[in-house]
């Protein structure tokens, strides 16, 4: 427990000192994971909505696949992305390996199934509430998807946060495709792994506390948005 | 989620501008974890303007990454594997860069009674006979290859005891030290990692000063014939600097806790041969 107390004071000291390296690492973590979350939402929300309202053969299999892919192991995603982006791989000519872009790609693949599967469940419930209304309005499929996404936007915000949480906390994928290169691809989780391997456990834990604080800040920010939107009388 | 943000994000996701003067070094972990690069690279970067990006993984993985053309320079410590890398056409030339040595660390109560021994094989045989815990890297790294070579000389087959007294962590040096210390096991490590390691607890060096524990590091520029994408000029500049009098002096000057971690020997033909 002495470690924990030491780490806590170290974490506070780190944050207060405004350490330039720490700010760089935090900023890259946010940039990579927020970008991946946005991309995953752009891909996953409409996909989830389409599956939610669709009735097609093989739908059960699609649902199982979407739900199962929520459990994609980060290290496997990292390996697959590495094999594609490696100079000897099919996309090697792009020169993306060991860049933040590679990390965004890996995290997007990791969390798109989470966003899609959770959105599907939420929107399907919503759809069954509104199904008759939609039918009476003779909405097209696209209009229905749009209406569902809009009406469910606050629930979907939580879905996005679930994706962000997974992205910002994972280390297995970004350490393989990013390489944990100082001042280039080092993020919070890979920095924590590095300090652990150096035996600097208190510093590693302090970085973990900073990461947790970051996660709190992002979630509090989103919560604030939601409350202020509700206060303006938006449909919750 | 506002869709207005999407174009901005795609911009964020655009490939980083390719830097003319940047190279990737596929490296073993000990040189990175001990802080050597943090000490050396600013000197080199200031002189040449070349950015050096270090990917620190085990020697086995570093070599594999370099074979996939995902690095410009290889800096590892497993001479036979390095020579195979060059023989297969992936490297231009392998040069001795520096050395230090391996040690076996153990808990202060020394359950196998090997503290103070200077013969690694004898100590390892005794650890096996006493069924004392031994934590192995088990990850095909340079240190792991070395450890297996030492075992094969003893006649003990540790793999037969895997999961019992012989624990293969399948992890890097630091993670293996953390795990080994957690379970009271003996661990073979390079001295640089040990000196700079922050979680020693009650562990001490048990076995050292055996010629068989010699640890040679080599440097190899990746061949532009095998890998047209490499930044061959910058890679050669970096290699030449490491091997130059200035680079060698800088390596020798690096200390942690008043101890020298790496001994430059690019021009030293008298260094003992690495038999690992």
Automatic annotation (TrEMBL), chain A:
Gene3D superfamilies: MetI-like. Pfam families: BPD_transp_1. Keywords: Membrane, Transmembrane, Transmembrane helix, Transport. It is a multi-pass membrane protein. Residues 26-222 form the ABC transmembrane type-1 domain. One of its GO terms (cellular component) is plasma membrane. It is found in: Cell membrane. GO terms for biological process: transmembrane transport. The keyword Transmembrane applies. The keyword Phosphoprotein does not apply. Belongs to the binding-protein-dependent transport system permease family. This is Tungstate uptake system permease protein TupB.
From TrEMBL, chain B:
Transmembrane segments: none annotated. It holds the Pfam family PBP_like_2. Keywords: Signal. The keyword Signal applies. InterPro entries: ABC-Tungstate_binding, PBP_domain. Coiled coil: none annotated. This is Tungstate-binding protein TupA. It comes from Palleronia abyssalis. The gene is tupA.
């Amino acid at each position: 427990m002495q470690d924990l107390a030491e780490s806590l004071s170290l974490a506070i000291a780190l944050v207060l000192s405004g350490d330039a390296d720490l700010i760089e690492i935090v900023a890259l973590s946010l940039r990579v994971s927020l970008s991946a979350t946005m991309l995953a939402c752009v891909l996953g929300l409409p996909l989830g909505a389409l599956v939610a309202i669709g009735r097609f053969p093989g739908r059960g299999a699609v649902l199982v696949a979407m739900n199962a892919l929520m459990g994609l192991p980060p290290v496997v995603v990292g390996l697959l992305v590495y094999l594609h982006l490696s100079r000897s791989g099919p996309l090697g000519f792009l020169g993306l390996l060991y860049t933040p872009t590679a990390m965004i790609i890996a995290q997007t693949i990791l969390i798109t199934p989470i966003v899609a599967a959770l959105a599907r469940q939420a929107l399907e419930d919503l759809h069954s509430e509104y199904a008759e209304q939609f039918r009476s309005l003779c909405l097209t499929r696209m209009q229905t998807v749009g209406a569902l996404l809009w009406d469910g936007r606050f629930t979907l915000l939580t879905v996005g946060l679930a994706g962000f949480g997974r992205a910002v906390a994972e280390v297995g994928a970004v350490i393989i495709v990013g390489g944990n290169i100082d001042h280039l691809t080092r993020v919070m989780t890979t920095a924590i792994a590095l300090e652990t391997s150096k035996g600097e456990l208190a510093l590693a834990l302090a970085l973990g506390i900073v990461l947790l604080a970051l996660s709190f800040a992002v979630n509090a920010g989103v919560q604030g948005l939601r409350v202020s939107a509700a206060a303006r009388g938006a449909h919750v | 989620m506002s869709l207005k943000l999407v174009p901005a994000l795609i911009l964020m996701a655009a490939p980083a501008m390719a830097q003319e003067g940047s190279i990737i070094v596929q490296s073993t972990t000990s040189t990175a974890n001990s802080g050597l690069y943090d000490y050396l690279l600013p000197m080199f970067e200031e002189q040449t303007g070349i950015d050096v990006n270090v990917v620190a993984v085990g020697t086995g993985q570093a070599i594999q990454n370099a074979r996939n053309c995902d690095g410009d320079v290889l800096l590892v410590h497993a001479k036979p594997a390095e020579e195979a890398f060059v023989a297969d056409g992936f490297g231009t030339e392998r040069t001795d860069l520096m050395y230090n040595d391996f040690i076996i660390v153990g808990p202060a109560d020394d359950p196998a009674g090997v503290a103070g021994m200077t013969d690694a094989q004898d100590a390892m045989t005794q650890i096996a006979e006493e069924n004392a815990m031994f934590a192995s890297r088990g990850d095909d790294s340079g240190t792991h290859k070395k450890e297996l070579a030492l075992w094969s000389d003893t006649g003990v087959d540790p793999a037969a005891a895997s999961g019992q007294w012989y624990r293969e962590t399948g992890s890097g040096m630091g993670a293996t030290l953390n795990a080994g210390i957690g379970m009271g096991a003996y661990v073979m490590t390079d001295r640089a990692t040990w000196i700079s390691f922050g979680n020693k607890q009650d562990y001490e060096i048990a076995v050292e000063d055996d010629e068989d524990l010699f640890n040679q590091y080599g440097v190899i520029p990746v061949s532009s014939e095998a890998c047209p994408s490499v930044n061959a000029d910058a890679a050669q500049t970096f290699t030449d600097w490491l091997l130059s009098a200035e680079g060698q002096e800088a390596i020798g000057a690096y200390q942690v806790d008043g101890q020298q971690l790496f001994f430059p020997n690019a021009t030293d033909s008298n260094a003992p041969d690495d038999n690992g």
